Amino acid sequence: MSEIKNYKEALTLPIFSIISKAAANLNVECYVIGGFVRDYLLQRGIVKDIDIVAVGSGIELAKEVSRLLPDKPKVQVFKTYGTAMLRTEAIEIEFVGARKESYQRHSRNPIVEDGTLEDDQNRRDFNINTLALNLSEKHFGNLLDPFGGLDDLTTKTIQTPLDPDITYSDDPLRMMRAIRFASQLNFNIEEKSLAAITKNKDRIKIITKERIVEELNKILHCNVPSYGFKLLEKTGLLEYILPEITALKGIDEVEGQRHKDNFYHSLEVVDNICQHTDDLWLRWAALLHDIGKAPTKKFHKKIGWTFHGHEFVGSKMVYKLFKRLKMPLNDKMKFVQKMVLMSSRPIVIASDVTDSAVRRLVFDAGDHIEQLMTLCEADITTKNPKRFKKYHNNFKIVRHKIEEVEERDRIRNFQPPVSGEEIMNTFDIKPSKEIGIIKEAIKEAILEGEIPNEHQAAFDLMLKKGEELGLVVAEGKRK
Fold first, then answer.
1. CATH number at 8-155
2. pLDDT tens digits for 421-477?
3. Are strands 157-158 and 188-189 parallel, antiparallel or unpaired?
4. Which end of the chain is less enclosed by CB atoms within 10 A, N or C?
5. In the beta sheet, which residues pair with residue 111?
6. Which residues form the signal peptide (predicted)?
């Protein structure tokens, strides 16, 4: 019989002693299980949530824990699932009664029955999430590891407690979770498990879009998201979830001319940008910045491969993709669209940095100019050291020029120095197309550097443009 390992040192938070006392009061066994134990053993840092399994009623245990806590936190009860939740000291604690599960093919929602701790560990997704620490007073801190989860942590392996084919077919979201954990922890998915994901990939169709996106977001939050996306592609899941991305895969060759593989390029851009920002939506923009290249790809004998207008086409595709996946269609989607639409603008002006081009870039990007520059710098994936250095130096020049122009011309979040109301008062006219013409002329003149971004210069141009349009200055309004 192998020696029982004890990890009392993992249970120093006061809440564990209180849970232990509550369990003793109710005469039930209970254990802390899953992510808390896994992350403690991996030394992954701050605890945000704790899962407690009781061999008995998880709801009653939660209520008893609340009664023993000084602040008597509210217990949220989910009767349908037999679970309860309470929050204390910024930690969310979920209580569940030990259970066994069975599944019907059309749904990932299990039929639940009361069970033993072994039943509960059997139903869990991966060996590394079956690890449990005993919270009883007598065996406090003892590790229960029936599936060798500790060994899997050592070998950095993701595998299922039971037959992976059944595990993934029963709850197809586990396929996404396997890839997400592999990406987060830099683990390998065991060979049979990986084959089972490929075999069951079409089962992902029964999973709600919201749950799929939740896992995609977690993969994008990883330090190296490409690891997860390559696994999604290898298993065939990505074709179901993001066909716009898999459409970029491959290199075509005509008359000896080839283009780069835009699938792997996009993943490299995501990895690059993750070194500089935690912004989830900027990471989405990096992933999607080239999706317009698949539908716009053409070969011309004289110039080779082109992707004309791929930024515009890609920005339109962003909306359809977000809508299909039931992602937010608010300012977050509009931000990703904007980044995709403008993704080539700084690159175009980098070789010839004029004040006018920079003013227009800042005007169009507004508050998002910094994110756009970060995206464009991440887009440099050339393996030629000279080109890499040259492109980055060009972007340094663009950044310097942005600061210089912005300080002088104040173009970001531009508001015309002359308002529509002032134009109406000056010429004593009502709302009309002439007002728009004059405002546009002033904006263009400022962006082109023909006049400074100042009221008097703009007012003088307004008078001139009004005269050209046949407008007459009202009495006493000429300055």
1. 3.30.460.10
2. 888 888 888 888 988 999 889 888 888 888 888 888 888 888 988 888 888 887 766
3. parallel
4. N
5. 102
6. none
Give per-residue burial for 95-125: e unless 16+ CB within 10 Å, then b. Answer: bbbbbbbeeeeeebebebeebebeebbbbbb
| CA 19 to mean position of chain CA atoms | 35
Show me where the domains of the chain are located. 8-155, 158-241, 420-468
| Per-residue model confidence (pLDDT) at position 364 | 84
3-state helix, strand, coil in the chain (%, to 5): 55, 10, 35
Show the low-confidence residues of the chain (pLDDT under 70): 1-2, 99-116, 119-120, 253-259, 305-306, 351, 407, 409, 412-414, 476-479
- The Cβ of residue 388 has, within 10 Å, a number of other Cβ atoms equal to 13
Residue from 433, 358, 439, 361 nearest 397 by CA: 358
CA distance 471 to 358: 33
Collapsing DSSP to helix, strand or coil, 252 comes out as: coil
The answer to whether residues 32 and 132 touch, using CB atoms and an 8 Å cutoff, is yes
Give the dihedral of Cα atoms 361, 366, 372, 373; nearest 10 deg. 60
Distance of CA 28 to the CA centre of its chain: 41
Closest by Cα among 370, 375, 439 to 402? 370
What is the rounded CA–CA span in Å between residue 374 and residue 55? 52
The pair of three-digit structure tokens given for residue 81, joined into one six-digit string: 């699932």
Tokens representing 294? 């698949």
Cα angle, residue 434 at apex, residues 433 and 439 outer, rounded to 5°: 100
Q: What is the pLDDT of residue 102?
A: 47
Q: Which residues contact 285 (CB under 8 A, 6 or more apart)?
A: 335, 336, 339, 340, 343, 371, 375
Cα-based torsion angle of the residue sequence 277, 308, 345, 419 in order, rounded to the nearest 10 degrees? -120
User: Can you read off the two tokens belonging to residue 360?
Assistant: 């227009």
- For 394-397, the CB contacts below 8 A with 24+ separation are 394/350, 394/351, 394/353, 395/346, 395/350, 397/350, 397/353
Cα–Cα distances in Å, from 274 out to 200, 232, 388? 31, 19, 18
* Beta-carbon count within 10 A of 43 CB: 6
Give whole-number Cα distances, 362 to 144, 190, 372, 396, 404, in Å: 59, 49, 10, 15, 11
**Cβ distance 172 to 200 under 8 Å?**
yes
Does residue 53 contact residue 96 with C-beta atoms inside 8 Å?
yes
Q: Using an 8 Å Cβ cutoff, are 362 and 411 in contact?
A: yes
CA distances 400 to 446, 450, 452, Å, are 20, 22, 20
Name the CA radius of gyration of the chain, rounded. Answer: 30
Phi and psi of 11, rounded to 5°?
Answer: -110, 40
